[in-house]
Amino acid sequence: MKRALSTSLATDIMIVVLIASCAALAVFSMVSVRLNRDRLLAQLDAQLATLADIIAQNSTAPLDFEDRDAAENVLQALRREPHILSSCLYSGSGALFAEYRRTTGDTFCPARSAQITSLGPHYRRALRPALRGDKYVGSIILTSDLRDIAAQEHRLIITFLLLALISLAIAGASGSVLQYRISRPIRSLARAMHKVTAEGSFDAHVRVWGSKDIAQLALGFNSMITELQRRNRLAKLADERLQEQARTDSLTGLPNRRLFTEFLTIAIATARRKQQLMALLYIDLDGFKLVNDSLGHSIGDLLLRDVASRLKSRIRVSDSLARIGGDEFAIILTDIREIQNAGSVAASLLECMTTPFRLEGHEITVGASIGISVFQDGQQHGTDLLRQADSAMYAAKRGGRNRVAYFTEELRSVASERLTLENQLRGAIGRGEIFLHYQPEFDSLTGNIIRFEALARWHHPQLGHIAPNRFIPVAEESGLIHPLGRYVLEQACREAVRWQTTPSAPIQVAVNVSPLQFSSETIVQDVCRALDSTGLPPRLLQIELTESVMMGSLQRSLEKMQSLRALGVSLALDDFGTGFSCLSYLPELPLAAIKLDRSFVSKLMTVSGSNKMIRSIVDLAHSMNMRVIAEGVEEKSQLELIKKLGVDEVQGFLLGRPGPNPISLLQASSARPQQSCGVAPVTVLSTS
Ligand code: C2E
Ligand code: MG
Ligand code: MG
C-alpha cells in the first residue's frame, strides 16, 4: 500500500519491464552461450579428428622406418594450429615414438599409450590408429585446449552485456515515455478529482491527452464533470427557489410569516435606534371561511390575491405587507408620527374592503378585523408585538367584526382567559354543563307568547356561569360551534315539542345559528335531523341568523335559506342594524322577520330620530312581507312607543327574562285573562 502510494504507475510499469527484459535477456544469453559452446566443441572435435587422421596417415612411413626425425617433422606441422596443446605418436608396441608440445610447460605425452589418462572438461582429445593397409603400425593422440572457444564465449557474453545495457536504456526511455503518457494524465485526473471532492469545485476539466485509454478516461471524466456542473447548477437553482418559497407566499407573492418576522426585527431595531413610533397591524378576514367552504378553494385563492393587492394599494412603499396565515395579513407601519395614524391606516384598509369582490361571476363581500399594536416603549420584541396585535384583532372580532381595535393591557388577560375557556369548552357538552334557557317573545297586538328564543347557558363547576357572549366566540374560533350548535338545535326542538301540549300552543322556538355554523354544508341536514328526531313540525322552528351570513357567498347562503324555507322552517335576521346593514340584499332573502338590535330600543327615548328610523325599518320590512321583532325592551315607555311604531313582536327583560322552565310560564300565561291590546308583562322565573 505504502509502495503503491510512493511510486507512480509508470515507475512500476518500468520496473516490471526492466525485470522482464533482463530476465529474458539472461535466459536468452545462457541458452545462446550453451548452444554456441556445444556447436564449437563439435567443430573442434571434428577438426581434431581430421588432423589426427592426416597425421596418422603421414606418420605410417616414419613408423615403418623408425625415422624419428621424419615423424617429428610431421608433428611440427601442428604449429599452425595454436589450440593444439600436444600430439603424441606411439609405435605399434605402444611406446612413445615422437611428440609435439606447443610450449614446454604444456601437457606432455606419457611414455606408453596405456598410461594416457582422462584430461578433464577444459581439454579435448582425438585418438587415431596409424594403419598401413590393414596393418596397425601405431597410434596418434591430439590434445587441444578450449582457448578459442573461451575467447568466443567471452565475446558473446560481452555482446549480451552490451545488449542488456542497450535494452535497459530502451526500457528506461520507454518508462519515461510511459510516465509522460500515462502517469502524468492520471495525476492530473487525480488532482481534478481532489478539487471536486475536497474543494467542491466542479470547474475541474482536464486536458485530453496521453495514451488512447487514458484520453478516453479523461474524456469520460470531463463529461462526468459537465454533468455534475449541470446538476449542481440545477440543485443551486432549486435551492434558491426553495429559499425564496420558504420566505414568500406563493399565492399572493407577499412575504410570508418567516420573512415578515425578519422585517419586524429590523423595523424594531430601526425604531429603537431612531426613537421612532412603529405599529403592527394584524388583519384577519371576516367571512373568508364561508367563501372557501361554499365556493371552493380556487375562488378563495382568487379572493386572497385581490385582498392582498387592495391592501397593498393603501399603504406606503416603505411599509411591509405580508400574508402570515390562511386569511391573515400583517402590516408594519414604520415611522408613524402619532399612534392614531395606525388607526387611520386601518380604517382606510377596512374601507377598501367594502366594495364587493367580483370573482368568476360571483359577487363576494368580506370584511376584516384589524388589531393594532404599537412599538413605543422600546422594550417589546417582534413576538410581543405580533401577539399583542393578534389579541387586539380577536377583540375586534368579538366587538362585532369588521372593525379596528388597539391592543390594551386588559386584552392580555382576555387572551389567556380565551385559551382557558376553549380548553374547558371542549368537554363541556359531554359533562352536561351546557343547557338552554328560554326567553319569551310576544305578539305586540295580542300580548300572546308566540315563541321562546333558546339561549345557551354554560355553568362551569369552578368558573361558574359563563355568558354566551364569552363562550360563543370561543366556540366559533375553535370550531366547537358545530357540535354545540347541533346540540342546541336538538335540545330546543325537543323542549318545544313539550309546549305544544299547553293551551297556548302552537308556540314556536327560535334557535340562534352562528354564521360559522350556517356556513357548514350540513346545516340543512342538521336542522332536518333535529326536526325528525324530536318530531317538531318545521313551522314551529325559527332560525335566527345574523347579517354576517351574507358575507362570503351570498348565493350559497341564499340557497341554504331557501332549502330551510322549503322545509317549512322560518328565518329571522337577528341583531339587525349592527352588521354592515346593506339593505340591497334584503328583498332577496326569504325572511319571515327581522329582529331589531337592542341598541335601537335603548336609544329610542334618548336619541332623536330613533323612532323615525324604526318606523322606516318597519315600513320597509312590511313592504317585503316581513315582521319586525324588537329585542331588549326593558321599560314600559319603550314598549308603548315600539307598539305605536308598528313593531310586530317584542322581547325583553320587561316582559320575560330567559329561564329554564318555559312550560310553567306558558301555563301561567294561559291561566291569566288576556288583555285585548298590549302585552301583559310577565314576572318571570329565574334570571340568567
Ligand atoms: P341574541 O340572539 O340577540 O339574544 C338576545 C340576548 O339579549 C340574550 O343574551 C338575552 O338574554 C339578551 N336580552 C334579552 N332581552 C334583554 C333586555 O331587555 N335587556 C338586556 N340587556 N338584554 C336582553 P344572552 O342570552 O346573553 O345571549 C347573547 C347572545 O349570545 C345572543 O344574542 C346570541 O347571539 C348568542 N347566543 C346565545 N345562545 C346561543 C346559541 O345557542 N347559539 C348561538 N349561535 N348563539 C347564541
Ligand atoms: Mg337571537
Ligand atoms: Mg339579538
Regions with little confidence, pLDDT below 50 for 5+ residues: 1-5, 674-688
Percent helix, as a range, is 40-55%
What is the architecture of the largest domain at the second tier of CATH?
Alpha-Beta Barrel
CATH topology of the largest domain: TIM Barrel
Q: What is the average of the pLDDT values?
A: 87
Which oligomerization state do the chains in this entry correspond to? single chain
Radius of gyration: 62 Å
N- and C-termini, Cα separation:
93 Å
Class inferred from helices and paired strands:
alpha/beta
Q: Quick one: CATH class of the largest domain? A: Alpha Beta
CATH superfamily of the largest domain: EAL domain
The molecules bound to the chains, other than polymers, are: ligand C2E, magnesium ion
